[in-house]
């Protein structure tokens, strides 16, 4: 792949080059990583002008249906919408479970929309390893709203809040203990909480759940720089409440932009991304080092038979790896 041609194609609106670029930045092949970094460096000057929105929630809350309805509304209003739908990955095979984004068939067929399903590859926080890079790519392609749908499982789902401007949490009607979301730590990062599927005979139940969640949110620490999330109801299937949800999201985005909070927040996110990338690079170097693998096999056998503790074996592995790295620098 010619990186200059690919970058030019992405910025010119070529969907083929957009797909190739995301495939490259998602690749875990060692040979592709340097090329991915070089491509992102070419695209970065064209990125950063979109509203990044994370959509999270437990399975069954209707995330894909809401994105389909919201994205269709936005394309009707002449926005260009990119959806990065992170598919769960099988723990055994590493393959995606949900397949493509046919769950958003109405939106996917629109010329102003781009829907991409990506494997999470076991990533914590429900976002794939290259989600942040994919955001850069679609922004460089001119999409002004980026919707990131997360896996919706586990207690680290709030990690998506470190890469978006607005975090939308979907809740189930009658989800039970109103403090459950706070215990998971997710509500602390939410900008908007949406009780979805509030339609037909469930309208009243939806309103009751919204009141319970609003009461629970009063228990969260208040902050001048982070107002309490608004709790809303909607029915993504029927389209009711979706326009009101967008107006609230857009108003909050405009306020953050005008106050300078958006610039500050994105700067903090970029620093977090730096540390995340450094950790990932160190972990990759550690796990792919042949000498470390040999030591790990020997120490693992000792841990298994009880002659060494796991913590002591880990300490030995890390110290040996760092020593090898130091020796390699001395030889260069």
Automatic annotation (TrEMBL):
One GO cellular component, as annotated: cytoplasm
GO molecular function: GTP binding; GTPase activity; kinase activity
Keywords: Kinase, Transferase
Domain of life: Bacteria
Gene3D superfamilies: 1.10.287.130, 1.20.5.170, P-loop containing nucleotide triphosphate hydrolases
Transmembrane segments annotated in the record for this chain: none
InterPro entries assigned to the protein according to its UniProt record, in alphabetical order: GTPase_ArgK, P-loop_NTPase
One Pfam assignment: MeaB
NCBIfam families: lao, PRK09435.1
Family affiliation: Belongs to the SIMIBI class G3E GTPase family. ArgK/MeaB subfamily.
The protein's name: ATPase/protein kinase
Organism of derivation: Paractinoplanes deccanensis
Gene name linked to the record: fadW3
């Amino acid at each position: 792949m010619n990186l200059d041609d690919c970058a030019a194609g992405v910025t010119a609106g070529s969907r083929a080059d957009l797909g190739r670029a995301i495939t490259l930045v998602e690749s875990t092949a060692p040979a592709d990583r340097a090329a991915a970094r070089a491509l992102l460096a070419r695209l970065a000057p064209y990125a950063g002008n979109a509203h990044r929105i994370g959509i999270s929630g437990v399975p069954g809350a209707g995330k894909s249906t809401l994105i389909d309805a919201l994205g269709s509304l936005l394309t009707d209003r002449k926005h260009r919408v990119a959806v990065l739908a992170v598919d769960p990955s099988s723990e055994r095979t590493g393959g995606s479970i949900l397949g493509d984004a046919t769950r958003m068939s109405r939106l996917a067929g629109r010329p102003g929309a781009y829907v991409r399903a990506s494997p999470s590859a076991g990533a914590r926080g429900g976002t794939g390893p290259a989600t942040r890079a994919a955001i850069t790519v679609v922004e460089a392609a001119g999409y002004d709203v980026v919707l990131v749908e997360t896996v919706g499982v586990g207690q680290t789902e709030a990690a998506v809040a470190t890469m978006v401007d607005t975090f939308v949490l979907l809740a189930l009607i009658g989800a039970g203990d109103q403090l459950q979301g706070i215990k998971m730590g997710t509500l602390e990062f939410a900008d908007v909480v949406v009780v979805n599927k509030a339609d037909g005979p469930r309208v009243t139940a939806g309103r009751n759940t919204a009141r319970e969640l609003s009461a629970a949110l009063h228990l969260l620490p208040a902050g001048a720089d982070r107002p309490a999330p608004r709790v809303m109801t909607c029915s993504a299937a029927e389209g009711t409440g979706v326009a009101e949800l967008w107006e609230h999201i857009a108003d909050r985005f405009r306020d953050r932009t005008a106050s300078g909070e958006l610039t500050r927040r994105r700067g903090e996110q970029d620093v977090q991304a730096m540390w995340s990338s450094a950790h990932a690079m160190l972990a990759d170097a550690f796990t792919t080092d042949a000498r470390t693998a040999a030591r790990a096999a020997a120490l693992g056998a000792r841990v298994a038979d009880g002659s060494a503790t796991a913590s002591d074996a880990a300490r030995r592995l890390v110290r040996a790896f760092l020593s090898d790295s130091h020796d390699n620098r001395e030889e260069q």
